[in-house]
Structure prediction request, 449 residues.
Amino acid sequence: MRMPLRRLVLLFVGFLALVQPAHAAFQIQRVISPGGIEAWLVEDHRIPLMALNVSFNGGAALDPKGKEGLALMTASLLDEGAGPLNASAFQKEMADKSIALSYGADQDSFSASVKTLTQFRDRAFEMLALSLMKPRFDSDAVERVRNEMLTSLATSMGSSNWIARRTLSEAVFAGHPYARPANGTIASLRAIAAPDMRLFLKSRLGRDQMMVTAAGDITPAELGPALDRLFSGLAAKAEPFTVPDVVSKGQGQTITVERDYPQTVITLAAPGMKRSDPDWYTGQIVNYTLGGGGFQSRLMEDVRGAGSKKGLSYGFSSAFVPYKHGGLVLAGGSTKNATAAETLGIVKDEFGKMHKDGITDAEMKDAKTYITGSFALTLTSTDRLAALLMQLRVQDLGIDYLDRRNALINAVTLDDAKRVSERLLDPAKLTTVMVGKPGGFDKAPLPKN
Prediction:
């Protein structure tokens, strides 16, 4: 049965009443364990549930050459048996007690998260510690996970989107660790063995490279001693490592990967910014206008819109992607092979317009309204809140960031937006990758930048 509009509105207002105060009402506390381990905590005792996140600096960018995928494969095996529990026993214990434990890795970090009911909190912490300190890496589990990763990779390799992303990464990050695939290659996944994963853990999981956050039904007095129980068994220091900063290469290059697909996937990249860049907030407003604002963005209107626009694509979007050691401006979408040239020309033309003129006052107001107003909707669960706290820590935003965030966004001016657009949206600096059988270039040659 259809819900009346008035009731829908009232429910939505009620929902906002719950989530909107989250930013203003919750307090981030700094908790220091007796052993000196720091965590950031938001207490919330309304529901008997809590989440804890841990992140270690140093991720897939540190995978040895020839063993790409090591960090991710290690992450995939840490909940596949630890201590006295083999994979099936470990998984059964988590299922029986509704414990959600997961590990992950990206180019810059290795992470873990656990979510648990309060009544099983101690056991959840024990299992997290056990998986970190005493993973089994049993041969049957290793081979099963390896085969799963190989199957997933083989499937991905037939995807035009995957080919485009991989080709683009290899072009813009050429010679840098970011150019190598975090999920490995067929050959590298086959080369990884249990001793490699044990060495990875021994080298990378040091308390000096660790950050911890928690949210939910736990007090500082309870969390402090738990941190020592969880992590005191880790090495005090990880092995030292360095990853150099990188600026996008291949600027102005166009790469075509011919595949017998009915559509052409188009991806573009230009040098971007780190999260620590003082222009970051301006960049978010510029990106919202360019292609990050869904149907409100210029790229979406240009290639999908009605009227004089031709519906060249179901969608074209953009993002400012920060890495620890660099950043990219990314844009992408797909179109019919025959309209690839036209679509690419329109996209580059929009980059050129914003590069020259910036954005309008109306676009500035729309972007600020959305970026400030939608933030509360990201704080709707305990695990999301713990993850947000980790984002604040990893990006070194400060424990008071949430009190300052909206003011930083609202302080952006049209002159700021014009300056950042000029800096980052130069179409001449775009690296373009097309996957498919792109056509139309004889009728509509690429515009000269």
